[in-house]
Amino acid sequence: MTRTRRRGTVAAAVATSLALLLAGCSSAEDSGSGGDASPEALDAALEKGGTITYWSWTPSGKEQAAAFEKAYPKVKVEFVNVGTGEEHYTAVQNAIKAGRGGPDVAQIEYRALPQFALQGSLVDLTGYGLEDLKDDYTTSTWESVHVGDGLYGLPQDSGPMAMFYNKEVFTTYGIEVPKTWDEYVAAAQKLHTADPTKYIASDAGDPGFTTSLIWQAGGRPFRTEGERDVTIDLQDEGTKKWTAVWNKLVEGKLVTNITGWTDEWYRALGDGTIATVTAGAWMPGILMESVQAASGKWAVAPIPTYDGKPTTAEHGGSTESVLKQSDNPDLAAAFVRWLNNDQASIDVFLESGGFPATTADLESSKFREFSSPYFGGQKINEVLTTAATQVSSGWEYLPYQLYAETIFYDTAGQSYVNNSDINAGLRTWQDALVQYGNQQGFTVNGG
Amino acid sequence: MASTPTTGRPRGSRRRLDRRGWIFVAPFLVVFALTFLAPIGYAVQLSLFQEQAFFGGTTFVGVDNYVELFADSRFWSGFLRVMVFLAVQVPIMLALALVAALAIDSARLHAAGFFRIVIFLPYAVPAVVATLMWGYMYGTNFGLAADLNDLFGTAIRPLSLNWALASIGNIVTWEFVGYNMIIFYSALRVVSNELYEAAAIDGAGAFRTIVSIKLPALRGAIVIATIFSIIGSFQLFNEPNILRGLIPTVLTTDYTPNMYAFYLSFGGQQYNYAATVAIVMGVITAVIAYVVQLRGARKGM
Amino acid sequence: MHRMPGKSRVLTAVASLYLVYTLLPLVWLLINATKSQAALFATPGLWFGGPFSLFANIGETFTYDNGIFLRWLGNTLLYVVLGAGGATLLATAAGYGLAKYRFSGRRAVFAVILGAIAIPGTALAVPTFLMFSAMGLTNTPWAVIIPSLVSPFGLYLIWVYATDAVPDELVESARIDGAGEIRIFFSVALRLLVPGIVTVALFAVVSTWNNYFLPLVMINDPGWYPLTVGLNQWSGQGRGAGAEPIYHLVITGSLLTIIPLIAAFLLLQRFWQSGLSAGSVKQ
Q: Per CATH, is B64-298 categorized as 1.10.260.40?
């Protein structure tokens, strides 16, 4: 055999054996030690000390970690920001797949929690007695940190939806603040007719927004029983209630299609092109930071409803969870308990503009009485804390919600490109989700 | 190329000498094996299995993934898209680069050195930054596109469904004309001056000089630039993916085959199917690249 | 005696149009780097507006988050020096080997390399990631450096260049003088290959400086990010609930990221220019 041929064979052999080696390694066991879960274990872990890694993109995260280290000098917290949203989840997912390299504590939004919990990647915190903290939080956020029978985190913040509107635009065009969605559509018509360069809202297709509005309308499209039984019905009664209204806006071209969080979007909010934003209670922070051109011109009102009876949904919000591959789950759980339940930590969080999930803070008069200069002196927190108590219950996210939201744009989002019937888009989305779920080993009933 | 010396030396020792070439090639090949061959081998292996993302459990499925891929309209529409992109963008970009290189080499341009640097500049800009800048330009409410539309009375929306591919093509062209221009210019610099003098004596004008001397000298460079551009077009990912933040419903997750593979992996954890996409795309790209290389080589490289 | 045609104003004018096209986005970048965060969304994009904040922005870019931008800059330099430097070395050696030694299988070598490059990098990312993870290399600089050591274009360039630039006779006579192959490479060939090496180095530097996708996948710890990935993270910071947008830093950071490359090009250009024009008289 000539040298060249032999070299080729050697290379092939190396590649093959490497590949085989990795096949064995690819679904590596999570390298974690199971702690003896009990409430005392948390305090014991804090006493013992150690080092934990905390991944989060919360603006106040680093400060909170530092405050924790001050309170518990024996513990070192390595705070790392590995990206916002999808990038963060990709990093976490990669670490889970590789079986190593992940943090002890990771920020997980409520929408993503079922995915990671049902995968079996998170530690159930029930054993640490954290169920006793139920009354510290709002009902809806407490629901959000439960998946099936397990408790997987403590609520960090909440995002009850309200309607933020440009008061100056409303006054200029003589538009009344809508209380029902029908009034909202009428306002949209009135505004756009009076000034074709202005729109009541912008919606280029956003899965978080869509699911929250379906929630508010009473829709419950996603249901999971046990580990594998999933039902998806994106045409249930509540969903259809929402599409009936929203189609009028989309098909009627009464909403513009500027994608959120872009340069154009911020400018449009600033100059009145977009007159309302219906979003979670964290929106004021965004406006204050990035839309300074409209300072003093915005106000907040309760979200419009279908029948005039107040009800809303959550939009965004996160918890922190402990990864099973953590080497020190007790200490990690203790950190989570401090992070989202200790007043010292929550104060730091609130200072950076977060909206609380804790009833104590929501009910505090100082919080409610806050008069916002950006909102023309309005006591915005009164509206928002009231909204926090009006979130309708029983909402569930899919065990593969992150995937669902990634492909939302390819399917349901297409209705927004063509200004066509949203129902058709939702049905396409549903089909894709059913197919994916079944392929991945779930038993999915497609409504 | 060197000719075999016709001394009395036996051929065996020449061959032994030539084999020493492996010393120089080996370091490159070792790293190459690690960073390309091994992952490719692993990707082939992945494509023959099916793993469930959430419940584990890997099953051998043989060519099922490939069968599924051949019937996958989302993959083929993305593939068609990069073919169209290739057929339009690559010639435009290479033509611009060629003209620029010829112009700079012609000694008839004022401040040629300045032009050379500036045209190369965009290549030095990372795709993240380039897309950020052009993304702003394309804004139809507040961007440059808005101003141009007002000026010319047009209603072009660069980020709309009909224009998105062209807009991406523009960014890629802007980024890489300079790179290709340098390749062509380097080839031109090696042309011996005697050739030019002989041509001048024969009375050849500028155009004739270009056609008879410069273009033939550029043949090899054009071939290799074409091959790398083809490979780059088939692998189109950075620009559409970064631009996707602005228009996620237009630039869908299957917009290009590479994006499809990316979102299959990192969005849906469908690593096996993603590997299948990669292998199929790789084979197709390689075949086309070889064809181009062969045709180019036949004309005497 | 031939007459030299004069410089053409028409050609220059036409070329200048292209120049405008090339520079426009960069001008946008420069202008907007002078704006504060508030002014960014409130002033027209292609002209100045708001208080002049360039130096404030630069200062903030370097000090934000405990000066992580400087760390990213350092990382990028590390990756470039080791990655591009290594790539140039490997490509030069391999190109020389392919050019001067007619061993069987050398065309196959290049064909295999071209073939492997044809496979989309993004889908190789997962297998590469898993491989590197099993070897404990993820989240380390090696995960970025090792993949960037392979430059197929560099290989090709040196191969073609060495064929002509290093005469066989020179190599032969060195052999007759008793020099070993490696000695010949370093003392004879390298000197002749300089312009080619500089070109390869230039391209390798740019490509490692702008390396984005693989570091994004391989590295979780922002302490090891290169500038491109870091900028991407800053850019994403402005989205969604609980966001803390820093667009002015993204823009200023982008500007600062491009400048070293431009400087490097201007520097390398002198070597490259003198090397290539040796032997041809043109301006």
A: no
pLDDT in tens, A152-195: 999 999 999 999 999 999 999 999 999 999 999 999 999 999 99
**Burial track C97-108 (b if 16+ CB lie within 10 A, e otherwise):** bbbbbbbebbee
Contact A87 C233 (CB under 8 A): yes
- Which of A18, A224, A418 best tests the B interface by mutation, with the highest count of B CBs <10 A? A18
Domains of chain A: 39-158+316-363 (3.40.190.10), 162-313+381-445 (3.40.190.10)
pTM beyond cutoff 0.80? yes
Per-residue pLDDT of A219-261, as tens digits, reads 999 999 988 899 999 999 999 999 999 999 999 999 999 999 8
Give the start-to-end residue ranges of the domains of chain B.
10-47, 64-298
Q: Which residues of A touch B266 (CB under 8 A)?
A: 90, 93
Q: What are the residues whose beta carbons fall under 8 Å from the beta carbon of C275, sequence distance 6 or more? A: C194, C195, C198
Nearest CB among C129, C217, C242 relative to A59 is that of C242
Mutate to test the interface with C, among B17, B20, B22, B25 (most CBs of C within 10 A): B25
In whole angstroms, give the CA distance from residue B258 to residue B249: 17
Q: What is the pLDDT of residues B222-233, one digit of tens each?
A: 988 998 899 889
Identify the chains in contact with B, defined as 3+ C-beta pairs within 8 A.
A, C
The beta-strand segments (E) located in A105-149 are 105-109, 146-147
How far, in Å, CA of C197 to CA of C88, rounded?
7
Domains of chain C: residue spans and CATH: 64-277 (1.10.3720.10)
ipTM greater than 0.95: no
Question: Residue C185 carries which DSSP code?
Answer: I
